Amino acid sequence: MAQESSIKSRGPIAAHPVTSAVIAILVIAAIFFSLYVPLYARATPMVGDFPFFYFYLIVYMPVVGIVLWIVITLQKRLAPARGAPDGPAGVQRGGASDGAGEVTK
């Protein structure tokens, strides 16, 4: 029982370090591959009639969309369930909530 209370008292990042690390790596990679210009700022090789820069952007944007969808899915797994004491509606401990974030007794 003591282990359950220690797990509940930890934040979602501390409780799931691997998932948090994967989220951080994916976000940092998405930012890096868009900001590291020497990677794609060249006219050759040509892909069809497109210089590499345009082809890179055409491929990169959907890939970033998929990566960010994965990040959002992983973040939802980290969040406590709705209605749980530490969840988004977690003001239920002290009394009933009036919906504006204030607790009424």
Characteristics:
105 residues, mainly alpha, two-stranded antiparallel ribbon, 4 helices
Task: Please report the distance between the alpha carbons of the first and last residues.
Answer: 30 Å
Regions with little confidence, pLDDT below 50 for 5+ residues: none
What form results from the Cα inertia axes? elongated
Sheet having the most strands:
2 strands, antiparallel
Tally of helical runs = 4
Proportion in β-strands: under 5%
Q: What portion of residues is helical?
A: 55-70%
Any overview of this molecule?
- It is a single chain.
- The chain is mainly alpha-helical and 105 residues long.
- It has a domain at 37-78.
- Helices cover 55% and strands 4% of the residues.
- A two-stranded antiparallel ribbon has the order 1-2.
- Strand 1 and strand 2 form a beta hairpin.
- The protein is elongated, with a radius of gyration of 22 Å.
- The model has no long low-confidence stretch (mean pLDDT 75).
SSE topology:
Blueprint: H1 2-9, H2 12-15, H3 17-35, H4 52-78, E1 96-97, E2 103-104
Antiparallel strand pairs: 1-2
Helix pairs in contact: 3-4
How would you sum up this structure in a few lines?
This protein has about 100 residues and is mostly helical. It has four helices and two strands, in the order ααααββ.
